[in-house]
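Methods, example record. To illustrate the input and output format used throughout this study, we show the complete record for FG-GAP repeat protein. The sequence lines were provided to the predictor; the line carrying structure tokens was produced by it.
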Amino acid sequence: MPLYRTLAGLLLLSTQALADLPHFEPEPGLHAQVQQQGKRYFLQQPDGSRFELSIPEGNEVDAPSFDVDDYDLDGYPDLAIRVPVGMVNSAYHVYLYRPALQRFEQLEMAPALMERANCSWLSELQPNNEERALYSHCRSGPRWYYDAYRFDASGTPWLYRTLQVRNDYDPDAPVFFPVFEKTLDPQGKVIASRALDDDDQAQTWTVPASRLYLHTRPDDASRSKAYLIEGDVCEVLEQQGNWLLIRYASRKGPLERWVSLNEAYGQTRP
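The corresponding predicted structure is encoded as:
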């Protein structure tokens, strides 16, 4: 895996503090350097070329900050430019290092991709090596939201994980789970789901009925002979009206089935 390091003794084109503008090695022996001229910033490429960096729009009184990290998790360092937006959010522009070209290129987020995300721009970026995903965080109201991106073989990002907030609250429903984490495949199909609480921890639900039958689909006709008993604790995977998709840790392994909340709470079906 290529190594990179921040180097001392930076050659700057302004009076800005040396530590503010990075000079680093995307690969051993190849150097990249951020330079400043007035209010404009440039990147000196490893191949000797130089181009002006795009600075995100943010608070006009705050100067941009620069971070070097492996944002696309390909083993090579990338460059991020961060500008505060409002009280807690930030806007990022990211330049990814392309080892085949020995150059940096700006990460372009397709509008259709961002329309599906909670954060309408890249914000508060955190690479997650364990999941091989780049997390973007933004706050709206009292809650932090996140989107996670993975990169395909060509370096193009796709939405891997996101929060889905339900706006169909039913005051007559016995229980309501407002936030679900959705995991998607590269084609955008949801392959996993789970309810989260305000601390982004998995939500559980405890069976209130003495006997609660399991269903293969969210309808009465799909009832099976299997059932749960009062006190059984389940992880909540999905909610459709008065139906819950739950995961129960049975003796034979995890069991995913639908249960009727009408049946669980003894309500009369409409």
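Annotations derived from this record:
The chain is about 5% helix and 45% strand.
Confidence is low (pLDDT under 50) at residues 1-19.
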